[in-house]
Recover the amino acids of this structure.
């Protein structure tokens, strides 16, 4: 659950804002990440099933077969656990356009690839990717600011790519920001209807949504065919 997109380059300035472990543990050990991931996995399941308010550290400890001090050893409190869970998909989603500077592809190809990565990351991180939509009131102001910085990073890459692709004749749209927000709203509304056991498997859902996003940004047929040949 904690893995990020393999091909994305994470900006150090953004990673610096990720939630840090502030439990009672004074120094990381070889087993730190494994134990933290155990707690996060159980917490994710409980938060998804019961919501934030109805989930307690006691319940997490019981599910783990451990004690409350064990949980507090790795995390300060329930809110930090919730924010840590939410941060991982935020990084994956908002670094979906972090291509190498030497990437030779056309702007339209990068846009479609990036939107596809954004959609796939949202689905892959179900259900924790949907926590911010379901319970936005939980997060600290500092955390919200960090996520906003990630989002600005994403749109600062997406909007120039959209405009370049339009100049290339590959896309047809009017207002850049509205187009960017509309395309990204497709994965944003997944929380209201997506079910892992639905009619289509996750890969097919991602492909369908990526094609819809391509229509939203006005992908021209010629550019679509060229992208398919390149793939």
């Amino acid at each position: 659950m904690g893995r990020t997109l393999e091909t994305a380059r994470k900006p150090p300035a953004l990673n610096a804002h990720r939630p840090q472990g502030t439990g009672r543990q004074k120094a990381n050990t070889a087993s730190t990440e494994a134990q933290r991931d155990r707690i996060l996995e159980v917490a994710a399941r409980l938060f998804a099933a019961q919501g934030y308010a109805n989930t307690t550290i006691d319940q997490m400890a019981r599910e783990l077969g451990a004690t409350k001090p064990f949980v507090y050893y790795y995390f300060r409190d329930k809110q930090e656990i919730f924010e840590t869970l939410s941060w991982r998909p935020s990084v994956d989603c908002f670094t979906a356009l972090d291509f190498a500077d030497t990437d030779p592809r056309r702007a339209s190809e990068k846009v479609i690839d990036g939107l596809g990565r954004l959609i796939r990351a949202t689905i892959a991180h179900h259900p924790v990717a949907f926590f911010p939509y379901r319970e936005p009131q939980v997060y600290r102001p500092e955390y919200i600011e960090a996520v906003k910085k990630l989002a600005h990073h994403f749109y600062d890459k997406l909007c120039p790519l959209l405009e370049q692709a339009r100049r290339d004749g590959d896309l047809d749209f009017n207002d850049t920001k509205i187009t960017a927000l509309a395309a990204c709203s497709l994965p944003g509304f997944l929380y209201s209807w997506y079910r892992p056991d639905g009619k289509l498997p996750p890969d097919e859902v991602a492909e369908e949504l990526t094609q819809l996003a391509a229509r939203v940004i006005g992908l021209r047929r010629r550019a679509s065919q060229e992208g398919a040949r390149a793939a």
Notes: The two ends are 27 Å apart (CA to CA). The chain has eleven helices and no strands. Residues 116 and 167 are 22 Å apart (CA to CA).
